[in-house]
Amino acid sequence: MSLIKQDDFITSIRNAFQFISYAHPVDFIQAMYAAWKKETNTAAKDAIAQILINSRMCAEAKRPICQDTGIAVVFVKIGMNVQWNAQLSIEEMVNEGVRQAYLSQDNTLRASIVSDPAGLRQNTKDNTPAVVHIEMTQGDNVEVICAAKGGGSENKSKLLMLNPSDSIVDAIVKVVPTMGAGWCPPGVLGIGIGGTAEKAMLMAKKSLMAPITLHELQHKKETNQALSNIEKLRLELYEKINDLNIGAQGLGGISTVLDIKINDYPTHAASLPVAIIPNCAATRHVEFTLDGSGIAQLPTINLADWPILPLSHEIQQYVINVNELTKDKLKQLKQGDKVLLNGKILTARDAAHKKLIDLLNNNHPLPVELRNKIIYYVGPVDPVLDEVVGPAGPTTATRMDKFTGQLLAQTGLLGMIGKAERGPQTVTDIKNNQAIYFIAVGGAAYLISKTIKKSKVLAFPELGMEAIYEFEVENMPVTVAIDAHGNSIYDHK
C-alpha cells in the first residue's frame, strides 16, 4: 500500500508540465532526425532542420518548444490499494500543478485556455482547467501521463462513423489530406478503432502517448517476422499517408507522419467508429509513477541526443526591408522563394482580427495603421529575464481567412505571415490585391523569437497574447507560400 502526499502529486504535475514544455521525447527526436536524413524535398528538409534546431535550443535554454504551450491533458491511473494524504480532489490537485507550471517565473508558459467557450471566451490566465482522465486499476502506485496538446493539431481531429464493411485504410487516407498542414507535420497520427464515439476519441488521444516504434515494425516486416493485424494496419497507413506528398509543413516530400499509433476496443456489430487525432511537431508528453516515496523522477536531458544540423535556408535567399516594401517590390517575389525579413511587422490573431473588422464595419478608425504593413499570425509566450519576447512561432492561417479579403481591400495591408495553406477564396483575394503570404515553420518558435529584436503592444492589450504587437525583426526566415500573382507553394498536392 502506498500513501501519496498531496504536495508530492502537485509538485510532480508541475515539474512534468515544465519539463515537456522544453524537452521533446528522445524517440521523437530520433524519428525526426531519421526523417530529415531521408527527405529529398529541399523545402521540407529545411523545415525539419529548423524544428530539430529549435528543439535543441529549447532543451538547452529550458524555454518552450512552441508558443502554443498547449491544453493540459492528464491521464491518471490509480492503484486500488493507494491511499491519499490530501485535502484536494485528483482534478483539483492536477489543476494546482498545472497552474504552478504555467505561472512559473523561470519559464513562463502561455495561458491559452478560455472559459465560457460558447460566449465570452475569457482567458483563465493560468491555463487551467486541465482535461483529466482517471482510471482505477489493480496495484499500489499512481501512474500519470502529462501531455500538452497544441490547438493547431487538436483542431484537425476527426471522427468517422464507418459501416462495418468499409475500409479503414481507404477512409483514413481519404480524410488526411482534408486536415491540411495546420497540424504541423511531420508528427504522429493517433487512431482509435471501435468502442463508441467517445471511446474511440479517447483511445486515439491516449495512443499518442506511446513510444515511436514504426522502425521496429519495418524491421519485423523486412525479416519476415509475424505481424499482428494492428501492426499490419499501422505499416500500411504509414506508407500510404507518406505517399500523399503532404510532407513537412505541407511543403511536399516523403515525411508526413513519423508513426501511426492505434488503440482498439470491441464495438457494436453495427458500428465501426474510427477516431483520428494528430500530434504535431511540438509533440510533448511524459509519464511517471508515484509510489509514496516522494516526487516523480523525470528523464534527464542529454544534449547529445540532439543532432547538430545546418540551416539550409541560410543559403540563396532574399533579404527584404519590410519598412520599404511596396506592391511593385512584392511582384518580384515568387512562390517558394526563401526570404529574410528585416524591419517592423505587426501581429494579430483571431480576436484582434474580429475587433479590427468590427471597427471597419462600423466606420470607426483603426488603432493601428495597416497600409503597407505585414501582419504575423502569432500569440507569443511572455518573455523571461532579458528576452525581448518569448517563443513566437506562427499559428494556423486559415482561421484568419474569413477576415483577410476585407482587410486587404479596405486597409492597404500588404501581406501576412502564418503557417499552412490558405483557402481558395483567400488565394484569390491575395492575387486580386497583389498581396503576399509568407509562411514560417510551425515548431520553430524559440528559433524565430531570436530574430525579434524589439516588441511593444500597440492595441488591444486586454487580449493578452492576442493583442496587436509591433515586432522589429532581424533576418526572420520565411518562405513565399502565395505570391502576388496567386501562385501557391501548396499546388503540388
Which characteristics define this entry?
493 residues, Dihydrodipicolinate Reductase, domain 2, 60s Ribosomal Protein L30, Chain: A, fumarase, 4-stranded mixed β-sheet, 30% helix
Largest sheet: 5 strands, mixed, barrel
- What spatial order of strands do you see in the largest sheet? 14-15-16-17-19
CATH architecture of the largest domain: Alpha-Beta Barrel
Radius of gyration: 23 Å
Helix/sheet category? alpha/beta
Mean pLDDT equals 95
* 3D shape: globular
How many β-strands, per DSSP? 19
CATH level-3 fold name of the largest domain? fumarase
The total domain count is 3
Helix content: 25-40%
The named CATH superfamily of the largest domain: Fe-S hydro-lyase, tartrate dehydratase beta-type, catalytic domain
| Strand percentage | 15-25%
N-end to C-end Cα span: 57 Å
Uncertain stretches: none
CATH class placement of the largest domain: Alpha Beta
Number of helices: 14
A few lines on this structure:
The chain is α/β, with parallel strands linked by helices and 493 residues long.
